Each structure stands twice: as C-alpha cells, then as structure tokens.
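Quick note —
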Amino acid sequence: MASYSEIDGIPCGANKKIARELLRETMGFGGVLVSDGGAVWKLFNTFGVAKDYVEAGLVGIKGGMDTEMPVGAAYRQLGQYVESGELDVSIIDEAVRRVLASKFELGLFEQPYINEDNVARSMTNKNSITISKEITEQSIILLKNEESVLPIKNNKKIAVVGPHAGLLRPSVSGYTIMAYYELIAGMSSDSKDEPTFHGIMDEKKKAKSKKDNSENVYSFGEMADFLGTNFNPEEILKAKFGGTTLVEELKTRTNVNYAKGCEIVGDDTTEFGNALELAKNSDMVIMTLGGNCGWTKCTGGEGKDRTSLDLPGVQQQLLDEIVKTGKEIVLVLYGPGQYAPKLTDNVKAIIQAWLPGAYGGSAIAKILCGEINPSGKLPITMPRNVGQVPIFYNHKTGSGYTVVQEKSGINSIELFGGGYVDSENTPLFPFGHGLSYTSFEISNTLVAKNEISTNEVITVTCTIKNVGDRAGVEVIQLYCRDCEAHVTRPVKQLAGFKRVYLEAQKSAQLSFMLSTAQLGFYNEDMEFVVEPGNIELMLGTSSENIVYKEKVKLTGEKINLMGKRSYTCPVIVSI
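Predicted structure written out below.
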C-alpha cells in the first residue's frame, strides 16, 4: 500500500523512484501496489499535484500504483488518457496483469466470495478466544509497584473509579466493527459530533451541495444500509465475544464498589462527589483513566492526534481530587497512545493496559488480584511531559538523553547541563521496561569470541534465574551499538529478545545468535553495509536496566548487505 506521505515533494503514490525503482527493481516486489484509502484523491485534494480527481488517477498509475482502493472512481476513467495518447496502454496492462495474477494465486476465480458464517465462527471459536485472552494477558504492563501494593490483599475494601472500568467499548480500538458502527451513525445524523476520517466529511458536504458530480471516494450510503445505525457496542461485545468489564470481573474476586466519576471526554464534574465519597470509605482506589479510539467522541484514531500528554477531559482533575483522600491508588491507563498524568506519592502502582479488547477486564482483574503474573514490556519510551518529545531509546549518538563517552576527562554533562532546566532529561519509563511479581537475576554472561569476521554470527550466552517465590516471565533483551562508524549511529539498538517462563527458583540458559548481517547501516557513501570495527553488546531487562556490556571486534572486509540483511536474532533456551 502506498502511504499518504510525501518524500522530497513527491507523494509516495506518485513517486516513480520509490514505487517503481526502489520497490520493484531494487527490492524485487512483484505483487500489487494499492493506494491507501484516499491516496489518489489526496493527490488532488491535499497535495495539489493534479488539477482534479480524475487527473490524480493518471498521476497515480504513472507513478506506480496498480489500483485505487476502495472505490476506484478515478482509475475507472483512465481510458480517456489512453485514447488521448497521454497514457501508454502497456502501463494499464502491467497493472492489470499483477492484479489478475494475485487473484489467481488467491483462488478467487474458483471461489470469488467468502463464506460469512465461517468468518464469524473463526473469530469466536474456542481456539481464537483462547489466543485472544493469552495475547491480552501478555500485553499488559506493570510499570510501577511501590511497596508491593499489588497483587491486591484479600482483606482490602476497594473503590474502583473511572470511566473505563464499567465499559467494554473503550478497550476496543478503531478499525473494528464498533468504530465503524459509530462512524456510520455519525455520518447518518445531523448532530454536531461529526466524525473525522481523513476528509470524508468534505466528501459528504460536497455530495450534499451537489456542486460536484464526480463519484465520491467512499460510498457511505451503501455502508449505512448494510451496517445499520442502531447498535449497542456493550451488548455486541458481551453477546458475540463474551466480553466482561473490569468491575464485573473484580466483583467476583474481591470487595469492590464502583463510581464512574466522569466521562472520558467532556468537562462534566457532577459525578465527582460519588467517586470521592466511595474513595474515602475504602482502603484502596483503583482508577481507570485514559482515552478511547475511533472516529467520533474519541481521543485518538486515524486522523485524530493529540498535542498533549495530559489525560483527556476532567480526568486529571478527578485524579487530583482522589489523591487528596490520601488513599493508596492503583492507576490503570488505557490507550490509544500514551499519557503522562501528574502523579503523587500515593499513586503506588501503574498498569499500562493500552486497548486490551473484549477480554481486557478479565486480564486486568487477574493481574490486579495476582492470578497471573504481569510480563508485558514497553514497546515505546514514555516521556515525563510533552516537552521531551521526541524521545526514544535508540536516538543517535550525540543527541538525546543518553550520552556515550568513550574517553576519560572533563565531564561534558556537568559543563553543559545535558538536559532541561525544569525537568529530568530521562524518560518516565524506558523502552523495554516492565515489572513482575517475582524477581530475576542474570548471570554467567559470555561472548563466545571477542573477534569475528564481518560475515559471522556473534554468540552471547547468559543464565537467567527466577529468584522469587512464584512463577513468572522475564524478557531478556540484547542491544548493540556500532562504536566506530563514520556516520552517527544510535546509542543502542534492540538486536534480540526472548520471553522466558520460569518456575520459582528455576534457571535457564539463553544463547543469542546475532548475525552480523543484522548490523547493517547506510554509510557515508549511501551503501548499505556492515563494516569492520568494534560493536558494543548490552544485555538486560530493559533499554536502561543493562547488566552486562562487552565489545566485539569485527574484522575483514566491508560487506554490502543490500538484499541480504537479517532482521531477527534466534535465541536458544535450555532449561
């Protein structure tokens, strides 16, 4: 799919150097290149590289897009350019050939339509549900757990506060049937809460004005007829998928009471009183805060970005009021995206739940009550506030919050500050971070050879032991740094990782097999290579919690890796 973005002034869908030379000639891609949903329309309406929508089709197919998705109103009119001599028919033949070949390979000539009943069964059968629950449980991250307040102690009276705990819909992402139902309902109504979906509202308004007779990119009338506009996402998620809310799950396990406190968005504080009264009469407060994902009344989704890391609506205000009660607080954060709420000392624990889906209530309750041991790790770096953005663990040497100093002498950090005048320069939580209810130790780390050729495999071994009193999972992470490239390289890059399940007091040996073909980069001559020189290896449980460092010297010739790059690091586990 050709993205909406542009590079050096040419949108990707019309960029011959990318779509034809790089993708097909250099990378050897022989499949179909389709437009993103409105990419052809955007060539005209957004980027202005075509005089109208019809000409945008000509620009797109010349650039290398084989077909226009999902409607193809511009590509339907390409014949007129063949007749006028502006488009060689061989370009259309080339695109048609690839489309037909793909359909043939998929068996669409023999069976062009799917069995809808089979699709429904495949999404809701026992095996699919089991896998979904396992993925959900493994994705949830315990970010903080001071004084081991989690798991919840059985004798505690718990107040659950926040808009997410009593609902299922906020746990489900955009690009799901729930979000589409909301989209169609918004499109079909005259309310002021119109959804945004990359310009579909402009299309809707154009159609109403009847000033433009060209076909719309999206046919929402047909979608509304098909999906309908009367729906209840909570009922659907419960009836079709067996979803349960966090409150429902906690009530089967411990002594809890619930108050919503506020909505996800909006400025209504009238329900604060109930939440505060509940908190005052409880031993611990579990607060469920964050956003929701879709196209209407949502905090994030396609075409819906934020300029702030603050909690939406009046959620921070609600948190501040609950904090004043002095009760222990466990904060459960929901996505999409990340938030950096203002915290105090009595926020003892933080769980990052993201968008956990229909089974999120069950998974979070099991983690809160200690039925399962959290094992998720952050796939991002979490900033303290928006002023730190961009912030990422693999920033280039000479920039960012990690400073590499190979030589002794004057400390440049002390001389020049190395950070902000009003905040720490480190992240709130680093990439790869995630806690457990047990503890692990890494020992016996060893690099097999400290000098190898540029076309060999680096072997790093270690022993991981669960030194706690309960079973758990740790994710061992291998990072690397090129110490001597003639272009600036990242201070560290994730090279390999492995989830390891261990019973209490049990150990395992890990062997990371890092191919030097994974170390490629573009050098000063724009060659994609691996070069001789020193590579620093780092082993730990997050990008900041590094317990072992060692350098390996690569010897021999520079190797061009174009088309031969390795992307994964195999790991052998011996229990």
